[in-house]
Amino acid sequence: MDGAGGLVLALSPLLVVLAMLLVVTREGYSRAGWRRLGTGRLGLRTWPLALATTAGVCLLATAGAVALGFGRLSAPRGDWLQSLIAVSVTGPILSFAEEIGWRGYLQPRLAFLGERSAMLVVGLVWIAWHLPYILFTPYYHSEGDRTLVLLLFGGSVIAFSFLFGYLRVMSGSVWPVVLAHFAQAGHHLSERTGEAAAGTATARVEAVA
Questions:
Q1: CA 121 to chain centre
Q2: Which of 20, 112, 191, 206 could form a disulfide with 156 if both were Cys (CB 3.0 to 4.6 A apart)?
Q3: Cα 76 from Cα 192, distance rounded (Å)
């Protein structure tokens, strides 16, 4: 998969939402159609919770990996500053492109399944969407035992699907979830540049961004 293909895949949740709203259901030609995505309110009261819970889960997982001997902490190295700048620019855009699909469009439309079932289904779709990155490119969780990587990745995605899903329900907005997704992506960057779980990549905390 080349760079252009990767970019299209990264933006595909947003592109699918636009296609559904403007071509298939045509709900996008009314304000109500867009309002249902949760973009009409910022949900500011939930932002601290979004950051605290996401950071807490990531830090606990990293501490556990280090404590169990699966990795070690080290200072940032390589092009970490360039990576930080790149993630700061592209991270919010890509987080929005994903979350408008998962928690903006899909989760509310699966509400008939029940709250928890909807979050589980969204998580399974989320896993499936990432598989081409993992299986067909060298850029995303390509190190270590593939089976263990997929198991760890799948477990983390399901966990974050519930966390992000509840943030969406509590706030009635997609923006706290975008913020949480971006915060989690920032944690993934710290792993890559600082090697928070270096040496045994199969057991490091898997990212969902």
A1: 15
A2: 206
A3: 9
Report the candidate in 113, 104, 207, 124 with the shortest Cα–Cα distance to residue 165: 104
| CA angle, 166 then 171 then 174, to 5° | 85
Q: Rounded to a whole number, what is the distance in angstroms from the first to the last CA of the chain?
A: 18
- CB of 163 closer than 8 Å to CB of 153: no
Q: Is the pTM of this model over 0.85?
A: no
